[in-house]
């Protein structure tokens, strides 16, 4: 299965808290100009596009299923506080800039083995590996400060069950 999506978001941020700078609508420097904090372009954490590809391979004689899920999310830009200040008319103003958040590839895999026990029933064991390549996808900022964070790395999940 191959899938593609394109999305846009009208909301500026998912944050529930605001800083003193935001509350007071302080002046800041953005794009070389002095502007009110509320005049900064809104951040849109929504990835502009995503492409997904799923594969499922079944090997009936071994009661084995191997599934792969590949995803590539598009890059986007985000407004961040650089941590720098500039003196303007004797006033120290925070400097904001645009930072690029790169595209993010991921590959997840699931291997499932079943032991048939009765008609339409089976004992099964499944292992999920998320982020198989352990790709480090950076996120430029968390909130309005220039702080690099990372998406979750590789994880393993084990599921044991009985299907009936």
Automatic annotation (TrEMBL):
It comes from the Bacteria. Keywords: Cell outer membrane, Membrane. It is found in: Cell outer membrane. One of its GO terms (cellular component) is cell outer membrane. The keyword Membrane applies. InterPro entries: Beta-barrel_TonB_sf. Its main location: membrane. This is Uncharacterized protein. The lineage of its organism: Bacteria, Pseudomonadati, Pseudomonadota, Gammaproteobacteria, Pseudomonadales.
């Amino acid at each position: 299965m191959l899938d593609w999506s394109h999305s846009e978001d009208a909301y500026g941020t998912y944050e529930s808290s605001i800083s003193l700078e935001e509350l007071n609508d302080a002046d800041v420097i953005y794009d070389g100009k002095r502007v009110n904090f509320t005049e900064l372009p809104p951040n849109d954490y929504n990835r502009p596009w995503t492409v997904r590809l799923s594969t499922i391979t079944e090997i009936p004689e071994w009661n084995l299923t191997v599934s792969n899920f590949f995803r590539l999310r598009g890059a986007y830009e985000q407004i961040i506080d650089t941590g720098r200040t500039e003196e303007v008319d004797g006033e120290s103003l925070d400097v904001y800039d645009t930072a690029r958040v790169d595209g993010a590839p991921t590959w997840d895999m699931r291997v499932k083995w079943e032991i048939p026990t009765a008609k339409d029933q089976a004992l099964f064991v499944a292992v999920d590996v998320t982020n198989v390549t352990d790709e480090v996808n950076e996120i430029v900022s968390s909130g309005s400060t220039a702080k690099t964070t990372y998406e979750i790395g590789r994880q393993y999940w084990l599921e044991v069950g009985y299907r009936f």
